[in-house]
């Protein structure tokens, strides 16, 4: 009997990781091992009920990582810059967490590592946007991963469609039937790169996992773009309006209240997240990913804004 193919999924109780766990469960080739700091949380128990393994580990604690990675074939790695405990340790603490995970994966002989990453704003903007830490940190981990010798792919994500409710980027205008998409610092014409995480991120991860052996030259040491669709926010507002049956406009707010996030949006508006890439990523399409459109997304979320 062949041994079970276990994939450790970090961030499994969050937006990214839960998409990965769901995709692996639906497919059945791999057993997802959901990694969390609290295996008794409501989300962890839900994942367990769905059929995932659940294991406790903390990215700050390398021994807990090695233990949780025992018997694991592959890892989906993501760090959360804004987690209060991580954030309290300083702007670049996320780099340490990524390095810990790579070191633990190497020590436990993980065969394939997928790293969720973002562009290096400082480098891309030639120093103009030098304080978008949660981007630069992840890109700095890319470099460490490349040097580590751990077989890997890097998966870049776009702006999560789920931000509409997770970060209140779609709000009701008081005393009216209207809704506003309120992303700051964004030019009306600048494209945004949308990722419907729930539907598309797990699929992309699964495709890489399924083909890192039989199509290794297409998968290993490569950077992919898990982006569902490229649109400007005015186009996105029109799609939402059509689906939701309510007036929706794009109304850039002056600030998020956080300088780092304002700079992040200004960077994206000025430079674009992935300007040199075809969207959807044809290499992921060729590996079997069927990306969804923002029209499909908008139809699906109707109930939330009825
Ligand atoms: N929102 C966007 O548009 C967007 C776009 C691109 C990239 N991102 C990136 O996405 C990342 C966050 O992903 P998300 O939205 O999926 O997160 P999320 O929904 O906020 O969930 C965070 C996850 O991280 C886990 N976690 C946090 N600190 C941990 C630690 N020290 N050890 C182990 N696990 C830890 C949490 O697990 P437990 O609490 O269960 O332990 C939880 O599963 C951010 O770094 C952000 O930069 C966001």
Write the layout of secondary structure elements.
Blueprint: E1 6-9, H1 15-27, E2 31-36, H2 42-50, E3 53-56, H3 62-68, E4 72-77, H4 84-87, H5 93-107, E5 112-117, H6 121-124, H7 133-148, E6 152-157, E7 159-160, H8 163-166, E8 170-172, E9 179-181, E10 191-195, H9 197-211, H10 216-219, E11 222-226, E12 229-232, H11 233-244, E13 248-250, H12 259-271, H13 282-286, H14 294-300
Parallel strand pairs: 1-2, 1-4, 2-3, 4-5, 5-6, 6-11, 7-10, 9-13
Antiparallel strand pairs: 8-9, 10-12
Helix pairs in contact: 1-9, 3-5, 5-7, 11-14
List descriptors:
19% strand, binds NADP nicotinamide-adenine-dinucleotide phosphate, globular, alpha/beta, 14 helices
What does this structure look like?
It is a single chain. The protein is α/β, with parallel strands linked by helices and 306 residues long. It contains 14 helices and 13 strands. It has a domain of 150 residues: NAD(P)-binding Rossmann-like Domain (Rossmann fold, 3-Layer(aba) Sandwich). The strands form three sheets. The chain has a seven-stranded parallel beta sheet with strand order 3-2-1-4-5-6-11, with helices on both faces. A three-stranded mixed beta sheet has the order 7-10-12. Strand 1, helix 1 and strand 2 form a beta-alpha-beta unit. Bound molecules: NADP nicotinamide-adenine-dinucleotide phosphate.
Secondary structure class reads alpha/beta
Please indicate the percent range of residues in DSSP E strands (runs of 2 or more). 15-25%
Order of helices and strands: EHEHEHEHHEHHEEHEEEHHEEHEHHH
Radius of gyration: 19 Å
Q: Helix count?
A: 14
The counted number of beta strands is: 13
Helix proportion range: 40-55%
- The CATH homologous superfamily of the domain at 1-150 is termed NAD(P)-binding Rossmann-like Domain
Bound molecules: NADP nicotinamide-adenine-dinucleotide phosphate
Biggest pleated-sheet summary: 7 strands, parallel
